[in-house]
Amino acid sequence: MDFLTIEGGAALRGTVRISGSKNAALPILIATLLTDDPCIVRNVPDLRDIETVIALLVFLGKKVDRQRDYVEVTAGTPLLAEAPYELVRKMRASVVVLGPLLARLHHVKVSLPGGCAIGGRPIDIHLDGFKAFGAEIQLDQGYVDVHARDHELHAATFRMPFASVGATENLMMAATLIPGKTMLLNAAMEPEITDLADMLNAMGARITGAGSATLTIEGVAKLHGVDHQVIADRIEAGTYMVAAAMTGGDLKIENCRPDHLGSLIDKMHQAGIPVDVSGQTIHVSAPQSISPVDAETAVYPGFPTDLQAQWMACMALSNGQATIKEQVFENRFMHVAELQRMGARIQTKGNAAMVEGIKGLSGADVMVSDLRAGAALVLAGLAARGTTTIHRVYHLDRGYETLEQKLSAVGAHIIRGQE
């Protein structure tokens, strides 16, 4: 099992180029199940989760050619209607194969998903949406079986009780091939949803309202191939922005989408961290000090839950007290105990964490519990005095492409080893 060792205290200086968005690339690759035509997807990051979804596509019958700059997905054997536990357990996003396979085959059986341990994250909203389309649902021994009555699905208006990203993706993909007009109300508005809708429209779908709370999908008979480029990863960009501030560095973050990072940029300005935006580049300079700024996670365009842990690490070095509330996922404070091992003064009560800033963190042995918690520990290690050893970094490999290479190139002292 790999680990990372960081000698802290080096200010990060230079340029970091942001990779394609993991959270956009995963459903976009799965959307290729909606057609037998060749599909090319560009700017796909080289990550463990991407490897998992490619393996799933191959299992389901697709041929996949992974090149350095793109992924080409073409027809192989006839599509299978079942995705087994062995593949789905590795990545929660696998559950969005339900929508495309139901639309194409009118029957799909998928293992209930796994993924990071950051809360229950049930798929009830997905299943209720499929029921609205006329599907019948059966749960049996860890599998969900979804099938259309008499091989027919119908359009529907469905209001989601929560603006779930995964449910929005799943239902939107299914609706592209369902006759009639489907409306998804209280839909997720994340940039990754818009990117998926853009790809589907390029394939011949008729989707309007992406980026708003109301999606309208006019079903079509067939979708065709596409050549699509995935958007930049806003969470990776945000992580490097916070890294620059915490280490007193000077980073230019290129190939990013500042328009997707408005909530973080606002928080950094409030904290006294210099942030300049020019086109697709964000420049973060060393602050004289970091002022405490409260944060409350919310669905987009609110403050991202995927940057909550990183912001907590930053506030641990502020010159006052900040409160961070987690409103999206329960059980997403598992990084707190590890940051405390490094000297951070954090107390939690329910979904709130009270952070009292200190002058400096100290290196320690810490363990990663989930992807973004791991990012927070890397940031803390970069800013800390002494040596930090981070265990279970396979979580990080799910979401950060060539992390140690990118950090080393801007002055970090970080190496990977094996236990």
What does this structure look like?
- The chain folds into two domains: about 1-20 and about 230-419, Enolpyruvate transferase domain (UDP-n-acetylglucosamine1-carboxyvinyl-transferase, Chain), CATH 3.65.10.10; about 20-230, Enolpyruvate transferase domain (UDP-n-acetylglucosamine1-carboxyvinyl-transferase, Chain, Alpha-beta prism).
- The protein contains 14 helices and 24 strands.
- The chain has helices at about 20-30, 50-60, 85-90, 100-105, 125-130, 165-175, 190-200, 235-245, 260-270, 310-315, 335-340, 370-385, 395, 405-410, and strands at about 1-5, 15, 40, 60-65, 70-75, 80-85, 105-110, 135-140, 145-150, 155-160, 180-185, 205-210, 215-220, 225-230, 250-255, 275-280, 280-285, 295, 320-325, 345-350, 350-355, 365, 385-390, 415-419.
- The strands form six sheets. A four-stranded mixed sheet has the order 22-23-1-24, with helices on one face. The chain has a four-stranded mixed sheet with strand order 2-15-17-16.
- Strand 18 (about 295), helix 10 (about 310-315) and strand 19 form a beta-alpha-beta unit.
- Helix 8 packs parallel to helix 12 and helix 10 runs parallel beside helix 12 (about 370-385).
- Rounded mean pLDDT is 94
Instruction: Give the overall form.
Output: elongated
Query: What is the domain tally?
Result: 2
* End-to-end distance: 5 Å
Rg, rounded, reads: 22 Å
Fraction of residues in helices? 25-40%
* Topology-level CATH name of the largest domain: UDP-n-acetylglucosamine1-carboxyvinyl-transferase, Chain
